[in-house]
Amino acid sequence: MAVPTLEIGQANAMMNLAYVRVTGRVTRSPIYDPTTGYFSFWLADDSGELRVAAYRNEARELISEARLPALGDWVAVEGTLRVREDALGLTLNVPSKLQIHRSTPIDRAIREISAADQFVRVRVQGQVRAIRAPYPGLTLIALRDGTGEIELAVTEVITALWGDLPDLFAGQSVEVVAPVSLYKETPQLSLVHPADLTLLDTPVAIAAEAHINQVSPTNAGEWLAVSGRVIRVEPFSAGVRYTLDDGGEQITLLLWQSVFDQLSDPHALVVGATVRVQGEVAEYRGELEIVPELPTDVSVLAAAPVATPTAKPLTPTGTATPLPPSPTPIPPTPIGTAAPFPPSPTPLPPTPTRAATFTPPPAPTQAPAHTPTLFVVSVPIGELNSGRTGEEVTVSGQVVNTASFSKGFKFTLDDGSGQITLLMWQDVYDDCWDAPVLNVGATVRATGQVGEFEGELQIEPSFGGDVKVTAPGGPFAPLREIGALSHYLGQRVTIEGQVVRTAGSGGGVAVFVGDATGEVAVFIWNNVLERIARNTGLSAPGTLVRVVGVVQEYRSNLQLVPVLPYDVQVLQ
Questions:
Q1: What is the pLDDT of residue 376?
Q2: Could you tell me what percent of the chain has a pLDDT over 90?
């Protein structure tokens, strides 16, 4: 006797425990528990949706036959209907009664994939640009081809069922076959099996080659590759700008500090060197820029010519005074969350007198009251311990983390031998000559008293002149569209946009900033707000701002939290 086929939406309590057949599409990624052997997936037709479950024995047989449904598959299945008040399910009793149809993949360029392609199996070739795990059990792999970028989602179910993925690294070219899924209306790919991700020996081009004179503002947002000779190098607080010339036109190569620090040979990028760079074209204040994303996006084609100096005898002019060695550079790490502190809502304060700039400040016309001597010897941080509490020492190191609290700011210094917290109370920070460039990536020499708080070693300078920045730092973070911030939860990013509105909040203020892709609340603690230059502009809708901060979630809403006053720039 034929088993009746049921439209899912027709199921009711009278049909509980009936043996039926249903057909439809798998609309969610399957669930698998290796401990219990339980496997389930959601099946939908035009009338409704139900969960199909296979228990240990049936699931084991399906796995052994490599015959498990996946997202986007068409399925026909027979089983026992389970109707409850709040749930509808079907239990698979006989594995052979599960039939799966998986469509042939369609070759697609990444830009061609849209929300309308949900559940369509596609084949793309691209280059791995980043690998991240937003939470345990999910890995997201950013893929780029010459037309755009998309994320490949890999759940722990895939690796639990079929094993690990091949080893991947940024810059690796791959081919992927996967169905299209949606994350908040944004297309992504969902891997079904590790075998559907293949490593390619031939590199996938992610940027079209162009002469500099072919690049125009209409290319903004596109990825291009250009070659040229370096004719100017301009370090700034967040990285380095290079002017490239190909004999006819010029363009700015913008290297964020995070990319510059990972270059295999940054000293090769000097005036006279010929380079090839691929990256996103941007326009900033009327100037065209090309912005690479990874250090592998930059290659030196020809080294700068080296002039041979004429040998001359050296005449000693005095005895050189040795200086303490510079610490080994440490790559910047993401900053921590600003420490909460008692609410003290205040209206937006008047503009501070300090200028908002991330470039090193000009030499003062009058020297600070205190200038440390050049003969001070820094103590290795690794040699400090709680036994030296109360002792005054000098340390040198690179700022690898920043944080704020209600009475001041903290900077984690690392010199390769250990780490220590540079604790600057508000009055000390305000008195610091180098505060504008005291940020992530800065190299710092600080003199102060060793302290300890909750097991954490600290050095506390008594006033700002005891903190000297010997190499400037700045807000180093990639520029992101506001509408894409949900993909960067917990990460440090830069946004640019206009003030939409401002709302008071306990202990700080929420400044809502928007761009063409969306809007986000920038939460600024009062001690940070009071020190932002031109901060009255933050209360005026339409003000253009640039903010560096950590993407956080508060009561299910995204927010961006800057840590230092110089992480917020009022541009106009």
A1: 52
A2: 56
Structure tokens at 38: 């339980």
Which residue is associated with the tokens 């600080």? 446
User: Phi then psi for 193, rounded to 5 degrees?
Assistant: -150, 140
Structure-block tokens of residue 299: 């290659």
pLDDT for 377? 64
> Residue 541 half-sphere exposure, CB side, CA atoms within 13 Å?
4
Q: How many CB atoms lie within 10 A of CB 68?
A: 22
Determine the pLDDT at residue 506.
Answer: 64
Q: What is the pLDDT of residues 225-275, one digit of tens each?
A: 999 999 988 887 778 899 999 987 899 999 988 888 889 888 888 888 999
pLDDT tens per residue across span 437-449:
899 888 999 999 9
Backbone angles phi, psi at 374, to 5 degrees: -70, -10
**Are 446 and 459 a contacting pair, CB within 8 Å?**
yes
The burial of 245, by beta-carbon neighbours within 10 Å (0-12 exposed, 13-18 middle, 19 or more buried), is given as: middle
Count of beta carbons in the 10 Å neighbourhood of residue 206: 24
508 forms beta bridges with: 505, 525
pTM of the predicted model as reported, rounded to 2 decimal places: 0.54
Q: Residue 521 and residue 536: Cα distance in Å, rounded?
A: 17
Q: Report the distance separating Cα 294 and Cα 291, nearest Å.
A: 9
- Tokens 């990624």 correspond to 29
- CA-CA distance, 547 to 570, in Å (whole number)? 9
Average of per-residue pLDDT across 446-454: 90
- Cα separation, 133 vs 151, in Å, equals 12
What mean pLDDT comes out for the span 525-531? 91
Rg (CA), the chain: 29
Query: Following DSSP, what letter does each residue of 72-101 receive, concatenated?
Result: T-EEEEEEEEEE-SS-EEEE---GGGEEEE
Per residue in 453-465, is it b (16+ CB within 10 Å) or e — as a string? eeeebbbbbebbb
pLDDT at 505: 66
From CA 350, how far away is CA 353, in angstroms rounded?
Answer: 9
* Per-residue pLDDT reduced to its tens digit, 68-94: 999 999 999 999 999 988 789 999 999
Strands (DSSP E) along 215-320, which ranges? 223-236, 239-245, 250-256, 274-284, 287-291, 298-302
Rounded distance, CA 282 to CA 189, Å? 27
Domains of the chain, earliest start first: 8-101 (2.40.50.140), 106-199 (2.40.50.140), 208-302 (2.40.50.140), 381-471 (2.40.50.140), 482-570 (2.40.50.140)
DSSP strand E in 136-238: where? 138-144, 149-155, 173-183, 186-190, 197-199, 208-209, 223-236
- Output the DSSP codes for 48-75: -EEEEEE-HHHHHHHHHTT----TT-EE
On the question of pLDDT at 292 being above 50, the answer is yes
- Number of neighbours of residue 191 by Cβ within 10 angstroms: 25
CA 10/CA 85 separation, integer angstroms:
14
The DSSP element (H or E) to which 425 belongs, if any, is strand 419-425
